[in-house]
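Below is how a single chain appears once it has passed through the pipeline. First comes the sequence as given, then the structure the pipeline wrote out for it. We keep one example in the README because the format questions we get most often are answered faster by looking than by reading.
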Amino acid sequence: MSNEFHNIKRLPPYVFEHINPIKARARAAGVDIIDLGMGNPDLPTPAHIVEKLAETVKDPRTHRYSASKGIPGLRKAQASYYGRRFGVKLNPDTQVVATLGSKEGFANMAQAICAPGDVVLVPNPTYPIHSFGFIMSGGVVRSMPAEPNDEFFRVLDRAVRHSIPKPIALILNYPSNPTAYVADLEFYREVVKYCRTHEIFILSDLAYSEVYFDDNPPPSILQVPKALDICVEFTSMSKTFSMPGWRMGFAVGNERLISALARVKSYLDYGAFTPIQVAAAAALNGPDKCISDVRQVYKSRRDVLVESFGRAGWDVPAPPATMFAWVPIPDRFAHLGSLEFSKQLIEEAAVAVAPGVGFGEYGDSYVRIALVENEQRIRQAARNLKRFFASSGVGGNVVAMNKPK
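Resulting structure:
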C-alpha cells in the first residue's frame, strides 16, 4: 500500500510550512518577530458590522442551518454592490452565490467544472489556490504571464493553439496577489473577446477591488459587454471590510457556472453561520467610509514601507493596489532564492516575509511583503534590515538584539 494518497502527492509542501517553524522557534526564544509574511489583516472589523452580528446572534432562529448559496438578503446586497460600484446588473437568484471566502469559492468551482486532464491557464506567480484548486481536481495547469501586457496575449494565443486538449478556463487576478499588477478595462475587453471566440471560461479573482492607491478604482471584468457569457468573478470581504476570520466571499456572473458551483456547494456545506451573513449584508448595504478608511491605512503603510526600506538599502517598488509589495531580492542575496533569503531575514533581522516561490516558480527572485503591521513596526523592520544589510549576512545577529531584557 502506498504511503501517500494520490491527490496529496500532487501537492508540494506549503511554503509557509518551512517558514512558520523558524518563526515559532524565534518567538519561543523571546525574539520580537515583525511579521510581514501572511496577508492577515490586523485592522478591526468596523463597529457597525460587529454590532449587527451581536444583535442577530441573539435570535435563536439564526442558530439553525443556513442556506448553502447564501441567504437572499446577502445575495441581493452583493448584487446591489455590483450595480453601484461597477454598473453591472446581476440577478441575485441565478448569478450570485455566497462562498466561505474566495479561496473556498475557487476550490469548489474547480471541482464543479474540471475533469481529469482538463487544461487550465493560470498566472505564474499567483495566489496558490488558483493553481492547486484545479490540480486537486485532476486538472493540468499551464502557466501564463502575470502582467497584463502584450506578452500576455502572445502567450495566451500560443497556449490555446498548442494545448491538447484545448484549455477550458483562464484564471485572472487583478489587482494581483502577490504582484499587485492592475488591469484596465481595455485589457479585459481583449481577453473577453479572445476567450468568447475560443469558448474558454474566465474566472476572475477581484478580492482586492477596494484596496487601491490612486484615483482609478480597479474595474470588474463583468463591465465588458457579453462578459457574462463566459465569466465568473470572485470577491472577498476579508480585505475590504477587515473581515478575514469571518470567511465571507462571493462568486458572481455566468448562470451556468454559478449553478454548477451552487450544486457542488449544496453537497459540501450549509453556508456560513446566518448571523455572519446578516452582518455581511449590513456591511455591503452600509456606509462606504469604512472602506476608504481601510484604504487610507494601507496607503500610509505602503508609503512608510517604500520610504523606510529604501533608506535601509532595499528598494521597494510602490504597489498601486492590494495590501502587498512584490519586491526583488537584493542582488547580493539573489543566489539564495526566496526561501533561503526569507529564512535569513527571520534569523538575522527578525523580519518575516513570504517567499516568492510559494506563488509559483517564476516568483523565486522576489518576496511578498504584507502591510499588516503598523507604521512604527514597519520602521522598526527597516532598522533591523539596515543592520543586517550592513553586515552583508555575516555576523551581527539581529535576533540577539531583539530579545527582551
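The first helix runs from residue 6 to 9.

See the next section for the split statistics.
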